[in-house]
């Protein structure tokens, strides 16, 4: 069976507009910029977000710069695979590995940035949030290993919607202060825990169904 890590199943809420944006931007990417250039820029965006979070401790308006990094990572992540397919770069497995490893690194950088802003007493909660978000990624990779169907969007929520949520949180922090984040953490933990429970339940139920189907077909052969 051929590798299918570059083919995603499931659609997020913004899937349609994303495709329009992607098709509009692709013709304007210079030939000198390759898919791996775009993928590796996530290292830069990931490094800058904690820096801006540290600066935001004295002036919360630095979070606008952190939000800009989220937008830049979204654009480069949106286009890297499309550029590779368009130009037949051939970096399918490398792209799968590096793209998703760096996505995780970028997620960690955002949550580390919030931990820098929070009082010391709330950093344990941020570690729990990081564990919850990481568990969604683990579920995607384990499910892909079992089904060869790579899904990163659940119940209409995917990486794009999560990035938008972080930008909204940054904007609310700028207007209402760090106290807003302190009050929001219990809700984030509750919603992410519930979402993870539903996702894992659905995934294991589908894998059970496939196992039983394979067993029945094996018994008939």
Your description of this structure?
- The protein has one domain: Four Helix Bundle (Hemerythrin (Met), subunit A).
- Helix content is about 75%, strand content about 0%.
- It is built from seven helices and two strands.
- The chain is an all-alpha fold.
- It has a two-stranded parallel sheet with strand order 1-2.
- It is globular, with a radius of gyration of 19 Å.
- α2 (about 35-55) packs antiparallel against α3 and α6 runs antiparallel to α7 (about 180-220).
- The model has no long low-confidence stretch (mean pLDDT about 90).
- It has helices at about 15-25, 35-55, 65-85, 90-115, 125-145, 160-175, 180-220, and strands at about 10, 150.
Architecture blueprint of SSEs:
Blueprint: E1 8-9, H1 15-25, H2 35-56, H3 63-87, H4 92-117, H5 123-147, E2 150-151, H6 159-176, H7 178-220
Helix pairs in contact: 2-3, 2-4, 3-4, 3-6, 4-5, 5-7, 6-7
């Amino acid at each position: 069976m051929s590798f299918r890590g570059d083919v995603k199943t499931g659609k997020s809420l913004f899937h349609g507009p994303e495709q329009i944006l992607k098709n509009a931007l692709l013709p304007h990417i210079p030939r000198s910029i390759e898919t791996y250039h775009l993928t590796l820029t996530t290292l830069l965006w990931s490094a800058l977000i904690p820096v801006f979070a540290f600066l935001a401790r004295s002036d919360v308006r630095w979070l606008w710069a952190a939000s800009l990094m989220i937008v830049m990572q979204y654009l480069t992540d949106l286009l890297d695979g499309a550029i590779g397919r368009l130009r037949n770069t051939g970096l399918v497995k490398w792209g799968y590995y590096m793209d998703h490893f760096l996505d995780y690194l970028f997620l960690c950088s955002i949550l580390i940035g919030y931990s820098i802003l929070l009082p010391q007493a709330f950093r344990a909660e941020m570690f729990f949030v990081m564990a919850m978000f990481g568990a969604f990624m683990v579920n995607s990779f384990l499910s892909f290993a079992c089904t060869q169907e790579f899904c990163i969007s659940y119940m209409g929520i995917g990486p794009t919607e999560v990035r938008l949520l972080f930008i909204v949180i940054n904007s609310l922090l700028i207007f209402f202060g760090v106290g807003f984040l302190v009050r929001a953490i219990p809700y984030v933990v509750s919603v992410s825990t519930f979402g993870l429970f539903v996702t894992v339940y659905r995934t294991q139920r589908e894998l059970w169904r496939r196992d039983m189907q394979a067993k029945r077909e094996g018994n008939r052969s």
